[in-house]
Amino acid sequence: MKNTYRLGTIIAEREILFQVGKKKSEIHIKIGKPKLHPDPVIRWYCPLQIIGIGSEKAHGAFGSDSIRAIEMAFQMAGLLLVRDIQKLYNLNWLKPEHLYFPPPNNLEELSKNEIHLQKKKKKKKKKLKIKKT
User: How does pLDDT run across 89-122, given as a tens digit for each residue?
Assistant: First the structure.
């Protein structure tokens, strides 16, 4: 899926400074203002971006309302950070809580939710196509 998320107005930021061996690193986490998703099935999304590690692309965390989207963005940020830091530095003990982010179910669960919403969207489009003929 093409990355269509834009950060927009930033409502929260966090800077993490750490050192592994002699290498010092700086990571910036930015959470954007929740927005209505163009697809009414998805409802709300909260954009987020992590700069300094990983792909640095903007992501969208989905929710049934703006508060849930913000909550999911914090969980997603924690999981993405842990994944990228573990990949880069092989720190297997690291958890989102260690970076002061809420503990989520897991990244796969967030992905499953996104896939589920996309499937609903496709079914809805098929139903609309049937109604047109």
Answer: 877 777 777 777 877 665 566 666 666 666 665 6
Rounded CA-CA distance 34/94 in Å is 28
3 found inside a domain: no
* CA pseudo-torsion sign 84, 88, 92, 96: negative
Supply φ then ψ for residue 131, to 5 degrees: -70, -30
Residue 4, in any domain of the structure: no
Q: Which domain holds residue 85?
A: 10-132
* Closest residue by Cα to residue 117 from 79, 60, 66, 78: 60
| pTM (2 d.p.) | 0.72
Q: Is residue 5 part of a domain?
A: no
Instruction: Please check whether residue 94 lies inside any domain of the structure.
Output: yes
Question: Could you give the CA distance from residue 69 to residue 1 in angstroms, rounded to a whole number?
Answer: 19
